[in-house]
Amino acid sequence: MREMLEVGAVAPEFLLCDEDYRFPKPAVDINGKPISIRDFDDKCLILMFIGEPREREQINPRIDFLKTLSVFADECKRLGAELVTAGMNELGMMRECVDKAGITFRYISCDNHQIPMLHDYKAYAGVTQAFTYVIADGKIQEKWDQTIPKGFNEAHFQEVLDYIAANNLA
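and the corresponding structure tokens:
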């Protein structure tokens, strides 16, 4: 398993930067709306780090994946939890994917490798790591490393939902 934040650790603030990590700024989602870890103080948050398409032929599969994530986000909402995803958008193709998928969750676009959020959550190692964190009461409650060959799939989504329900987090 790759290094991740430990269960019980305080969840870091969502911070972005323009080019230099030494000058962090508050995060906004891909639609420009401010987003903070504090927005979820009274909720259960599922934070997933997802990869971006690196070539044009990866766009349609990424759109399908985002649609699947929207179904998962809706299941989270039914439990009283919230899904937020974040990941690289270095090549700018995630905007197209998000628009075409019509996502029902918030996506934080990380436009360069210096983004504090990626590093604070240990989700960047040359590429975005496929990590899932469950956060409640401002702390990491559980974590999963879904990096290849695992990946995000129905079994993983169900495992996350079951964890939230079994631990009365939502």
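(Above: one complete record from the training split.) Helices lie at 59-79, 93-101, 116-120, 154-166.
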